[in-house]
Write a structure and sequence with these properties.
Helices cover 46% and strands 11% of the residues. By secondary structure, the chain is α/β, with parallel strands linked by helices. The two termini are 43 Å apart. Bound molecules: D-xylose and nickel (II) ion (2 copies). One nickel (II) ion binds next to helix 9.
Length: 436
């Protein structure tokens, strides 16, 4: 029985279309800057929000109407859910998906039983991947929901929590490999602290690094060649997450000799929680050679938590795409919609509206960014703004040939600096608007 009987395959109808179940901008085989839209984005649907999100919030239970669910936590129900998920992704036309181990199969009474449940459901996922050609962007282990992880997983004060988490990640790496996953994600979950009075931060950070090294070693052992990613987030659930932002993660990875094995999975709403723009986080990761993948969503300006809304803002996606084009794209990463429909949007069809809108918003952003780059005005402005570094004293500083004494002699002779060019922020903001 079909889960979405009233929905046909979503097709491109063009910007004039008023059909809410058609793409206005996303045409998967349209070529922009030498690459198809499909390859630029590598769109991915998340299993957790889209197929496990109930709409529950701290003030009330779930609201979602999901007719393919039988209301139990059985393996049978989990398998039916996989079929519904692949029907959804097939109709949507998303080439990838992502999941946590605990999203797809129920926990059993023991670790062994839990692993067995997972294997049973993974067999169906594999079948569905083969049937549809949809691929796995990344797998990850949920190391934060179960009460055993109340103090964290690899950073727990309880060594047994570390051991359990290791067993879980070991299994999840095997499953990700089995499904041909092209990345594997670590998001910190409860790796952080609420209060330093009870926390040995140094010891916890050392343990987290040990854990990541063990994962890297095991991946090598089993021949898993996907890219490891770490996903920065500054707070929630803990007050201070260790992976707080791109710069902190890169410092951490470098300090613990992990930078060769990891890149970053940058999430929009996490960037804003960290007090940064998405553009800032992407550029930081990009110029450090650590731009791996993105979790595409958006927060709410009025709310200070991870609301995980679908992106609908062309400015945002144009900025994101400017950076992705600048650094040559994301592959093997992708644009993963770590986003959920609102609690009030409880019908299955809302899942389509949300994703169609997100994909279209990115497609429009790509076209805007490509136009801006083709015109070249922004680049030319930045180049000219730094012109003083291209010759003379600037070039000498950059090449390392001018020391402090030489610089003093230069300035004593010159007297003072000449007024520089204006930053022209307002002009450039207006320029950006011309492309909207
Ligand atoms: C939570 C994170 C999470 C990761 C996967 O805020 O975004 O969903 O993407 O564990
Ligand atoms: Ni995320
Ligand atoms: Ni998030």
């Amino acid at each position: 029985m079909a889960a979405f009987p009233d929905v046909e395959k979503i097709v491109y109808e063009g910007p004039e279309s008023k059909n809410p179940l058609a793409f206005r901008w996303y045409r998967e085989d349209e070529v922009v800057e030498g690459k198809t839209m499909k390859d630029h984005f590598r769109f991915s649907v998340v299993y957790w929000h889209t197929f496990r999100g109930t709409g529950a919030d701290p003030f009330g239970p779930g609201t979602m109407y999901r007719p393919w669910e039988d209301g139990t936590d059985s393996v049978e129900n989990a398998k039916n859910r996989v079929r519904a998920a692949f029907e959804f992704m097939e109709k949507l036309g998303s080439p990838y998906y992502a999941f946590h181990d605990r999203d797809v199969a129920p926990e059993g009474a023991s670790l062994a039983e839990t692993n067995k449940n997972l294997d049973e459901v993974v067999a169906v996922m594999k079948e569905e991947q083969q049937r549809t050609g949809i691929k796995l962007l990344w797998g990850t282990a949920n190391l934060f929901s179960n009460p055993r992880y109340m103090h964290g997983a690899s950073t727990s004060c309880n060594a047994d929590a570390f051991a359990f988490a290791a067993a879980q990640v070991k299994k999840c790496l095997e499953v990700t490999k089995e499904l041909g996953g092209v990345n594997y994600v670590f998001w910190g979950g409860r790796e952080g602290y609420q209060n330093l009075l009870n926390t040995d931060m140094k010891r916890e950070l050392d343990h987290m690094a040990r854990f990541m090294h063990l994962a890297v070693d095991y991946a090598k052992e089993i021949g898993f060649t996907g890219q490891f990613l770490i996903e920065p987030k500054p707070k929630e659930p803990t007050k201070h997450q260790y992976d707080s932002d791109a710069a902190a993660c890169i410092n951490y990875l470098r300090a613990y000799d992990l930078l060769d094995h990891f890149k970053l999975n940058i999430e929009t709403n996490h960037a804003t929680l960290a007090g940064h723009t998405m553009m800032h986080e992407l550029d930081y990761a990009g110029h450090q050679g650590a731009l791996g993948s993105i979790d595409a969503n958006t927060g709410d300006l009025m709310l200070g938590w991870d609301t995980d809304q679908f992106p609908t803002n062309y400015y945002l996606t144009a900025e994101v795409m400017l950076i992705l084009l600048k650094y040559g794209g994301l592959a093997p990463g992708g644009v993963n919609f770590d986003a959920k429909v609102r609690r009030e949007s409880f019908e299955p069809i809302d899942l389509f509206h949300a994703h169609v809108g997100g994909m279209d918003t990115f497609a429009r952003g790509l076209k805007i960014a490509a136009e801006i780059r083709a015109e070249g005005e922004l680049d030319a402005f930045v180049k000219q703004r730094y012109g003083s570094w291209d010759a003379g004293i600037g070039a000498e500083i950059e090449s390392g040939s001018a020391d402090f004494e030489a610089l003093e002699a230069y300035m004593l002779q010159k007297g003072d600096i000449e007024p520089n060019v204006s930053g022209r922020q307002e002009m450039l903001e207006n320029l950006f608007n011309r492309y909207m």
